[in-house]
Design a protein that fits this description.
Blueprint (H helix, E strand, L loop, with lengths): L3 H28 L1 E2 L1 H4 L1 E10 L8 H18 L4 E6 L3 E7 L4 H9 L4 E4 L7 E2 L21 E2 L11 E4 L5 E6 L3 H12 L16 E4 L7 H4 L9 E3 L11 E4 L5 H13 L4 E11 L1 H30 L1 H23 L3 E2 L1 H30 L4 H33 L2 H34 L41 H21 L3 E2 L1 H4 L1 E7 L6 H11 L5 E5 L5 E6 L5 H15 L4 E5 L1 H29 L2 H25 L2 E2 L1 H32 L1 E2 L2 H36 L5 H31 L7 E2 L12
Parallel strand pairs: 1-14, 15-20
Antiparallel strand pairs: 2-4, 2-13, 3-4, 5-10, 6-7, 8-9, 9-12, 10-11, 13-19, 16-18, 16-19, 17-18, 21-22
Function: Part of the Sec protein translocase complex. Interacts with the SecYEG preprotein conducting channel. SecDF uses the proton motive force (PMF) to complete protein translocation after the ATP-dependent function of SecA.
Membrane topology: Multi-pass membrane protein
Family: Belongs to the SecD/SecF family. SecD subfamily. In the C-terminal section; belongs to the SecD/SecF family. SecF subfamily.
């Protein structure tokens, strides 16, 4: 008799999910912070250096610097700011959603140390000794004199204001701490005389510098365009001024005068800051990338839902519900964490759907297997859930290890990917395991699904009779395959491909991105189709030599330009302004110094090594050392093929590819562990294995039993990765390509390589060490 109450409970839960998601999803997505690559902005990594020799950069100095940066950013009205201290003496600044990136960049980089000098660049001191102008002296050596230097320390903190002069010209006013000190200074400058030098410069000009550096010369800069000058004003001083107000005059607009007042009030930096790494994204680029990637994600997820419902029927429908809930919960958790959603983060969310469905596939395959064996629907449901739980747990932990390593060693955008991946693993375990079990369990326990194997995609003619002792034969597409018999062919194929790939890597090499080689990269978005000749002509106009130009985009409207050198910020500003005027969209620009490039290479090697060691330790604890070593060989095999195909295709290999490799490392071991778990289970049923043929039979049977799971899992994740590759933003095209290659290689190695290697290795030891399963508490597998 059908228990309708459970079915009613199912639909009530379904209505609750739909209502909750429908009424809150808009608010959740609205509150999620978008990264620089989705809304535009820039990120700069600074190395902090002392102003004077002998000064120490400690935590206190770094925190004071961060406080000053925040005050400056606040003056621009930027709300989404993230300034972090990185050991030993670095500061990372991220500003999102700003209109004038160059202005903000200049605001950050200037130390804002105000100084007052004569026209021959001599510091003005507070004492009674008159100044001597050395401008016409051939030696050009300024006189030295005792006394306190008059500079920003003599000004009242926070006193800068934008005001207007007699002719309504905008200017900036400052308050001095001592009117008498300022009177002494002005008296000395006025004493230089109201005449002109042989160069036509006023002798009694008091030059006010912002960030004067040794070697700057007023005589040279006064002839430059106003925007290129480092001094901000050079008023004439004709008499002794007994006042507490200093006026900084110049050809200011109201906005320029206000900005100068703001930066002076924000305070000078107690350090010098050198750019090590920078990346900027134009708002149009960010919007286009987000729209395209979301579109690709929707298609990928829709294909996963459709495939699950066609292949697994009713349980596939349940999986689609829990996966929808999974996506919603991911966004809620991410919003509560105040996480920053990046382009790779969206990719991680989409891939997470493919990986989350893996838990459903493992469980549903088990349930189908139990139904085929002749068990009732309820017994099959209980046995399937019970036997799949440990496998799902092992598979998720290995992927989690790789994600944690990725977060520890990745750059900011890669950290966004890793964060989303970590959240996905936890949430998918809850929804795919417990959520699916709850919803499907309501139908199973209602008895509606009794004697209806078609709802699980099982035909009645394949169901065995348990009472007659019939057993389910491991078959794929109705046939038996002997994978073990052909192992030497698979080994030979892998060795041949490794040699081929190694040859390309050795002789052709990788097309390394600036992340690893240092240099600069500019990405231009045009309003029409462009060619390499078009881009080169523009850079020739700017007087800049390009190294490599690549045209991409659906309409051939994106140009990527590489430079061996790290472009100066002024050069980047010139490039941005030129192409914004030309095409109406501000280009993206990235620079990586040699220091950071070397660190990224080192961190990439560390990340892969640490992930591998962590997986070896975990698999050894859960299984045995032989399983652990062969799984690592398989994942290195998969990682190698990603690298080899990048060498063969010549695609750019950047830091996001390392993220893809580590993702595949976790996924490949995930797939391999499912097979190993089934081998372990079959060894337990056999209890004792003494011959190679017995072991080979168990391995082959295990491969047959898990093959459908391996194929279905890779298909669902490949659906997501392929859609990102075809329809996603160009900035993650190579990343998506690496994922597709890695997914296919991971499935191949799990079926044809890892288990076969374990068989050969462990089988060669059977004469000395027969495999005997001994039941022990807290043990993960077969014990000898």
């Amino acid at each position: 008799m059908v228990k309708r109450g459970r079915i009613v409970a199912f639909f009530l839960l379904l209505l609750l999910f739909i209502g909750t998601i429908g009424t809150t999803i808009q608010g959740v997505t609205k509150d999620i912070r978008l990264g620089l690559d989705l809304q535009g902005g820039f990120e700069i990594l600074y190395n902090v250096e002392p102003v004077d020799e002998g000064e120490v950069i400690n935590r206190e100095v770094l925190e004071a610097t961060v406080e000053t940066i925040y005050r400056r950013v606040d003056s621009l009205g930027i709300s989404e700011t993230n300034v972090t201290i990185e050991e030993p003496s670095r500061i990372r600044v991220q500003l999102a959603g700003i209109d004038d990136q160059q202005k903000a960049r200049e605001l950050l980089s200037t130390s804002a140390r105000l100084s007052f000098r004569t026209i021959d660049d001599e510091e003005i001191r507070i004492n009674d000794q008159p100044l001597k102008l050395d401008f016409d002296d051939e030696s050009n050596e300024p006189d030295t004199e005792e006394g306190e230097i008059f500079n920003a320390t003599n000004l009242v903190e926070g006193s800068a204001k934008q005001a207007f002069g007699k002719s309504n010209q905008p200017l900036v006013t400052l308050e001095v701490k001592s009117a008498s000190d300022f009177a002494k200074v002005t008296e000395k400058v006025a004493a230089l005389g109201q005449g002109a030098t042989s160069e036509g410069l006023r002798k009694n000009a008091m030059v006010i510098w912002l960030d004067y550096t040794e070697g700057d010369k007023y005589v040279e800069q006064v002839r430059m365009e106003p925007g290129e000058q480092d001094f901000v004003s050079a008023p004439s001083v004709n008499e002794r001024l007994m006042t507490q107000t200093v006026q900084i005059t110049g050809d200011f607009t109201i906005q320029e005068a206000k900005e100068l007042a703001d930066i002076l009030n924000a305070g000078s930096l107690p350090v010098n800051m050198e750019e090590l790494y920078s990346t900027s994204v134009g708002a149009q680029f960010g919007e286009q990338a987000m729209n395209k990637t979301i579109f690709a994600g929707v298609i990928g997820i829709a294909l996963i839902f459709l495939y699950m419902m066609i292949y697994y029927r009713f349980p596939g429908f349940i999986a689609s519900i829990t996966l929808s809930l999974y996506i919603f919960l991911i966004l809620v958790v991410f919003e509560l964490m105040n996480g920053v959603l990046t382009l790779p983060g969206i990719a991680a969310l989409v891939l997470g759907v493919g990986m989350a469905v893996d838990a459903n596939i493992i469980t549903y395959e088990r349930i189908k297997e139990e139904i085929k064996s002749g068990k009732s629907t309820m017994s099959a449901f209980k046995a399937g859930n019970s036997r799949s739980l440990a496998t799902i747990l092992d598979a998720n932990i290995t992927t989690l290890l790789a994600a944690i390593v990725l977060f520890s060693f990745g750059t900011s955008s890669v950290k966004g990917f890793a964060t989303m991946l970590i959240v996905s693993i936890f949430v998918s375990f809850i929804t795919a395991v417990y959520g699916s079990r709850l919803l499907l369990g309501l139908w199973v326990n209602s008895r509606f699904l009794n004697k209806r194997p078609g709802f699980f995609g099982v035909k009645e003619e394949v169901i065995k009779d348990i009472e007659k002792g019939e057993v389910v034969e491991a078959k794929v597409f109705g046939r038996e395959f002997d994978f073990v018999k052909n192992r030497k062919k698979f080994f030979a194929l892998s060795i041949a491909l490794v040699i081929l790939g190694g040859s390309f890597i050795a002789f052709k090499g990788l097309n390394l991105g600036i992340d690893f080689t240092s240099g600069s990269r500019v990405q231009i978005l045009a309003d029409q189709s462009i060619t390499t000749e078009d881009i080169n002509e523009h850079f020739e106009e700017l007087g800049i030599e390009t190294k490599k130009v690549v045209i991409s985009g659906d309409n051939k409207d994106i140009g990527v330009v590489r430079f061996d050198d790290v472009l100066e910020k002024d050069t980047i500003a010139k490039i941005k302004n030129h192409f914004k005027d030309e095409y109406g969209s501000e280009p993206n620009a990235s620079t990586v110094s040699p220091i950071v490039g070397q660190e990224l290479v080192k961190n990439a090697i560390y990340a892969v090594a640490i992930a591998s060691i962590g997986i070896i330790i975990y698999v050894t604890i859960r299984f045995e050392i032989y399983f652990a070593i062969t799984s690592i060989i398989a994942l290195l095999h998969d990682s190698f093929f990603i690298v080899a195909l990048f060498a063969i295709t010549g695609l750019e290999f950047d830091i996001t590819i390392i993220a893809a490799i580590l993702t595949i490392v976790g996924y490949s071991v995930n797939d391999t562990i499912v097979t190993f778990d089934r081998i372990r289970e079959n060894l337990k049923l056999k209890k004792r294995v003494k011959t190679f043929s017995e072991l080979a039979e168990i391995v082959n049977k295990s491969l047959m039993q898990t093959l459908a799971r391996s194929i279905n899992t890779v298909l669902t994740v490949v659906f997501a990765a392929l859609m990102l590759l075809i329809f996603g933003a160009t900035s993650i095209t190579n990343f998506s390509f690496a994922l597709v290659v890695g997914l296919l290689a991971g499935t191949y190695s799990s079926i044809f390589l890892a288990a076969q290697l374990w068989l050969v290795w462990r089988g060669s030891m059977l004469k000395r060490k027969p495999i005997q399963y001994v039941e022990k508490k807290n043990t993960g597998g077969p014990q000898v």
